[in-house]
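thought: user wants a sequence for this fold. calling inverse folding tool.
action: design(structure=
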């Protein structure tokens, strides 16, 4: 549909642009990302059997690369549901790291951060809609249930036919046995 061909690149553009910008100059994002990376690393260390890297710049660059790759694929309509989910997962820590409006006392700065925070939540909403968009086709769950029903029906029909053939063969065997006795 034409709307999807227009909407996907528009929705992907901030991710691709921001990702490329961050890859060029990751050190600008490191201070804002440090508290989020530290929190994620702390939580992961408690729950995972291994230690995860704590290099904030490495996390920032990985996130930027994910945004560029997933955003580009999404804009091109390649794996749109999966890439929308990946971008959704990527925007949450970015928003929490970069737009911490609750930490600002200056009303002008706080307003700017709230605006960007809400912009990112709006992008998240669009991505979530894109993630569930089946483009008018039945969902995978529906298709799987339908295939299972068809398979079950086909199996039942085959079983019924096999029972009829077995009953017929048994009758014929009984008739032959009676003839042989006589």
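)
observation: tool returned 182 residues.
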């Amino acid at each position: 549909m034409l709307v999807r061909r227009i909407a996907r690149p528009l929705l992907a553009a901030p991710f691709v642009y921001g990702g490329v910008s961050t890859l060029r100059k990751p050190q600008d994002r490191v201070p804002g990302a440090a508290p989020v990376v530290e929190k994620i690393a702390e939580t992961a260390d408690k729950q995972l059997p291994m230690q995860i890297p704590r290099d904030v710049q490495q996390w920032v660059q990985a996130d930027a690369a994910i945004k560029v790759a997933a955003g580009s694929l999404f804009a091109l309509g390649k794996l749109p549901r999966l890439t929308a989910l990946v971008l959704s997962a990527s925007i949450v820590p970015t928003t929490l790291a970069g737009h911490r409006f609750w930490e600002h006392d200056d009303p002008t700065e706080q307003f700017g951060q709230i605006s960007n925070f809400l912009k990112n939540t709006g992008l998240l909403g669009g991505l979530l809609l894109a993630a569930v968009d089946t483009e008018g086709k039945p969902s995978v769950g529906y298709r799987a249930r339908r295939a299972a029903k068809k398979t079950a029906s086909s199996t039942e029909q085959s079983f019924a036919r096999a029972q009829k053939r077995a009953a017929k063969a048994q009758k014929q065997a009984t008739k032959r046995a009676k003839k042989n006795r006589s």
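thought: summarizing for user.
answer: Here is the designed sequence. Residues 2-132 form one domain.
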